[in-house]
Amino acid sequence: MNTPNAFHFLLKQVREEHGMTQVDAAKNLKIARQTYLDLEYGKTLPRLDTLITLSALFNKSVAYFTGERPSLDSFDTMELFEELQQRYLKKVPNIAEAVPH
């Protein structure tokens, strides 16, 4: 579990982004400092209730902490681009056509 998407790497990153110390995070999670350290150093994984509290505390989804990322592999990129382009063109009027000559 030593990948950049590993739970402990994500936990440390999001804690630092929120300007919290490890002690601050432990207090907010209502767990012992050592328990928090074990989580952040990758020695243990969180209990479900701790994971849910982490998600609320840092405004991240549970999926974020599990390392799940949405994949676009199954999408046809050009088809998706064309659809987005059509949606954009419908919303934005053509100024050249709107100005009387």
TrEMBL record:
A Pfam family recorded for this sequence: HTH_3
Keywords: DNA-binding, Plasmid
SUPFAM superfamilies in UniProt: lambda repressor-like DNA-binding domains (SSF47413)
GO terms of molecular function: DNA binding
Keyword DNA-binding belongs to the record: yes
Domain HTH cro/C1-type: 11-65
Alphabetical list of InterPro entries matching this protein: Cro/C1-type_HTH, Lambda_DNA-bd_dom_sf
Alphabetized PANTHER family for the sequence: HTH-TYPE TRANSCRIPTIONAL REGULATOR IMMR (PTHR46558:SF13), TRACRIPTIONAL REGULATORY PROTEIN-RELATED-RELATED (PTHR46558)
Protein name: Transcriptional regulator
